[in-house]
């Protein structure tokens, strides 16, 4: 089954070209060294999974980046109220394609992390066959005009809590990826994005200064997950105010934590692991010697019964979520959409309920990738002689396999964002 999905995905890039009416892919310079001949990626992934060794390769990167490419220009679905992309009449904002950057992939934060995934693939495989198309999309979405529009939205229209803290953290991570990419285009895109990232960093300092305590949920509001990416951004750009704010609050919130209740995970439709997210943050924040002691008290031993939820695959069907649902996927939208009636609102409500169920399923699928990435980060943070390193790496492979086995079961509700987390898992240290 996995092989069939990945083979079908090989055809997706060609289908994308016909859908979007793209201009011919711009040429890129010839590589200084020859590229290995590409092969069918189905067997590549199948072999990696069978060997408990998921590898970041050109073939796998090509397949995964096709998913962000397929959603980055697909406008968010119509909401019931005024929002980032839609006016109160539920019509699209005029010329949104040229005035905004992150209007695709169902929601703002998914558009941001999909953009990050495209940058990551281009950065690691600059001569990939899809590299020209990726550059074309990034050139449009990260243009100076589009990002001026993003800054204008956040300074003039956005509510204080719009996409805070999850989306803000992803945007900072996008900037970090661009800033470390030695490429003329990437340097220009980073310059365009810098004012938006700086604005959100400033707002993050304000937000953190008023936080009474951490949010430990397994969804977007999780504090530890966002603080990790904010800390990476602060280090890269030298933002002393943000680094002080993140470091201070992280220590206040988490330094004294012990015996994280691993057995409670996952809860509902989690896509984050509160325990592993916190451990990953502290692995970056604390010196290694102190972190090892902290981890001793925080997580149970990898071979213990208490740690078993992190070893075992997420059971999706047992949570009462449907394998599939008959959902109308997000449309291109219309500038003159009719006002909703009682009948259409009822249909919309039913459709939203179904979407939430499939969205919940996609969260649980994504949790496998998130667990794998966090476990890899924990392993890398431990000294070579620590026996937990090998255990974490093994469990990361098992969780990563589970993610690939199930990532196509949630249709567009999952595929618009799961590829980004698969890329993150494969490239985590």
From the alpha carbons, calculate the radius of gyration and give it in angstroms. 21 Å
Put simply, the count of helices is 19
What distance separates the N and C termini? Answer: 29 Å
**In what range is the share of β-strand residues?**
under 5%
Portion of residues within helices: 55-70%
Low-confidence stretches: 1-53, 318-351
Mean pLDDT: 82
Total beta strand runs:
0
Main β sheet profile: none
Helix/strand-derived class? mainly alpha
Kindly report the oligomeric state of this protein.
single chain
Global outline: globular
State the order of secondary-structure elements, H for helix, E for strand: HHHHHHHHHHHHHHHHHHH
Describe the protein's architecture and organization.
The protein is an all-alpha fold and 429 residues long. The chain has a domain at 267-325 and 343-412. 60% of the residues lie in helices and 0% in strands. It has 19 helices and no strands. The chain has helices spanning 2-10, 12-20, 41-50, 58-71, 96-99, 108-124, 131-141, 144-156, 166-179, 184-209, 223-237, 240-254, 274-285, 288-298, 308-311, 342-381, 388-406, 411-415, 418-427. Helix 9 runs parallel beside helix 11 and helix 13 (274-285) packs across helix 16. It is globular and about 55 Å long.
What secondary-structure arrangement, pairings included, does this model have?
Layout: H1 2-10, H2 12-20, H3 41-50, H4 58-71, H5 96-99, H6 108-124, H7 131-141, H8 144-156, H9 166-179, H10 184-209, H11 223-237, H12 240-254, H13 274-285, H14 288-298, H15 308-311, H16 342-381, H17 388-406, H18 411-415, H19 418-427
Helix pairs in contact: 1-3, 4-6, 4-19, 6-7, 6-9, 6-19, 8-10, 9-10, 9-11, 10-12, 11-12, 11-13, 12-13, 13-14, 13-16, 16-17, 16-19
């Amino acid at each position: 089954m996995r092989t069939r999905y990945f083979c079908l995905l090989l055809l997706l890039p060609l289908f994308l070209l016909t859908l979007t009416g793209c201009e011919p892919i711009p040429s890129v310079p010839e590589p200084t060294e020859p590229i290995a001949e590409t092969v069918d990626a189905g067997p590549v992934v199948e072999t990696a999974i069978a060997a408990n060794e998921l590898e970041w390769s050109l073939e796998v990167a090509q397949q995964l980046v096709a998913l962000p490419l397929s959603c980055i220009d697909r406008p968010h679905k119509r909401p019931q109220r005024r929002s980032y992309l839609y006016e109160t009449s539920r019509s699209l904002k005029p010329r949104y394609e040229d005035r905004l950057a992150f209007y695709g992939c169902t929601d703002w934060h998914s558009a941001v992390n999909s953009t990050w995934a495209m940058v990551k693939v281009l950065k690691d495989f600059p001569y990939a066959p899809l590299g020209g198309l990726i550059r074309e999309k990034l050139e449009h979405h990260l243009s100076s005009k589009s990002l001026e529009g993003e800054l204008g939205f956040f300074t003039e229209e956005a509510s204080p809590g719009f996409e805070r803290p999850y989306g803000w953290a992803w945007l900072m991570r996008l900037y970090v990826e661009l800033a470390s990419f030695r490429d003329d285009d990437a340097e220009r895109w980073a310059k365009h994005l810098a004012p938006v990232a700086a604005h959100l960093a400033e707002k993050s300092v304000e937000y953190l200064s008023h936080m009474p305590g951490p949010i430990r949920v397994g969804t977007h509001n999780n504090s530890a997950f966002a603080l990790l990416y904010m800390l990476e951004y602060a280090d890269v750009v030298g933002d002393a105010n943000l680094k002080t704010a993140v470091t201070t609050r992280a220590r206040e919130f988490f330094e004294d934590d012990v015996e994280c209740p691993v057995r409670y995970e996952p809860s509902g439709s989690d896509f984050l692991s509160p325990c592993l997210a916190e451990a990953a943050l502290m692995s970056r924040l604390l010196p290694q010697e102190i972190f090892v002691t902290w981890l001793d008290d925080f997580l149970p031993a990898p071979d213990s019964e208490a740690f078993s939820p992190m070893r075992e695959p997420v059971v999706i069907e047992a949570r009462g979520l449907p394998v599939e649902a008959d959902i109308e996927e997000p449309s291109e939208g219309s500038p003159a959409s009719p006002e909703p009636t009682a009948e259409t609102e009822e249909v919309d409500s039913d459709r939203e309920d179904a979407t939430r169920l499939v969205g919940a399923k996609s969260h649980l699928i994504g949790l496998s990738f998130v667990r794998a990435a966090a476990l890899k980060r924990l392993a890398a943070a431990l000294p070579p002689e620590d026996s937990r390193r090998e255990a974490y790496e093994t469990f990361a492979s098992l969780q990563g396999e589970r993610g690939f086995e199930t990532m196509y079961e949630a249709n567009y509700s999952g595929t618009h964002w799961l590829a980004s987390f698969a890329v993150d898992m494969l490239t985590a240290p």
